[in-house]
Amino acid sequence: MQQSRNAIALLITVMFVIVITVAIGYGLKQVNTASAMVKEENFIYQNNITIEDVLTILQNSQELQRVADSNSSEELYLLLSEAAFIPFEYKGIEILLRLKSARAKFNPKILNAQRAEMLRLYLQNYNINGQYVDMLFDNIGGIKEDNSYTTAIFDENPSLFRDYIASAKHLELINDFYTKEYNDNALKKVDFSQLFIYGDNNNSSIDLNFATPAVWEMMLGCSQDRAEVLSSGMGSYTDLQSVNLSSDEQANLAKFKTSFFEPIIEVELGISQNGLNSKVKFEYDMKNKKGSNFVYEI
Known about the structure:
This protein folds into two domains: 37-102 and 262-297; 108-259, no CATH class. Helices cover 48% and strands 15% of the residues. It is of the alpha+beta class. A five-stranded antiparallel beta sheet has the order 1-2-5-6-7, covered by helices on one side. It starts with a helix and ends with a strand. The relative contact order is 0.15. Helix 4 packs across helix 8 (213-220) and helix 8 (213-220) crosses helix 9.
């Protein structure tokens, strides 16, 4: 009997120790989770401060102001060539700053019938169904009460934003639907990071001094080699004559809104602190000293 009581007492003690151990382990897990959340919240807070500080630096930069006032495509090209990649540390935070033209690519928001025709021709070179352009139109046309969309993309993605293409992630969702709907992987042949920019800008021009080869190929309906040649003239174009286009190329280019000097830059910040990383992109208007189209990836 005594041995039985001792065994029961021992069992109760072991169970009590197990319960205490589990409770302590759960408590430590909660503490670690809370600590991680505080660390992440602090990182987000530091991100916001860093962005504000970088924006202030840009606004006070005499060099940016000088280039903006110069109206010189060559000056803007030299500036962005020299400041394309700048790593530095600021208040204990590691930052990688990249600057490039924010008007080197095409914004799908400004698609119209003529531009859509050129985009379809461009995509046909990669065996992409013309329905893809219809899908883009659906995604920039807003909510239609009569549900008169050309494609079925919103049947599968009813909450998908449809006023404009907001980001590369947004386009990725559209591309994924196209791939599944048509059982077609042809979109992978196109580097959309070199073709499109995003955002709700109805009035953006393509700066011919920074246009990518993909954009030249789309605008002119020309070969890849011809597009590469035109892109290599970056920074040297002052007017249409200096671009040296054929009459057919000029006719196609006239379908797009273009310019030779757009002092609007894309600022990309890679931010690292205590093992946490984030990326922030935004556009900065050098003349008006304003930032816009902020996109965060944490």
